[in-house]
Structure prediction request, 90 residues.
Amino acid sequence: MAHDASTNNFLNYTKIAYVTICNNALIDSQSMILPNDEMANNTTIGKRGMITKDIHSNNVYVGNSAEFICTIQEYIGKNKSLMENGPSME
Prediction:
């Protein structure tokens, strides 16, 4: 469940609704998911991401409001290349 109190001062009620977080969803630190939103399978939300709509499978999102930046496959490929060509921890 999530809540959004932005309506309280004007309408005298607070929105409360479910949030759906599917398999392999990564929510980074200081991120926020608003009511009635869904994070589909294999999704990543970067630091301080704000989810204001449903997030589609196999994608990476960042920012406020969260914007698509690449697919999970592109993200893994980029990081694999960085790790193969530089210092990394296994």
Notes: The first helix runs from residue 8 to 11. Residues 20-84 form a domain with the UDP N-Acetylglucosamine Acyltransferase; domain 1 fold (CATH 2.160.10.10).
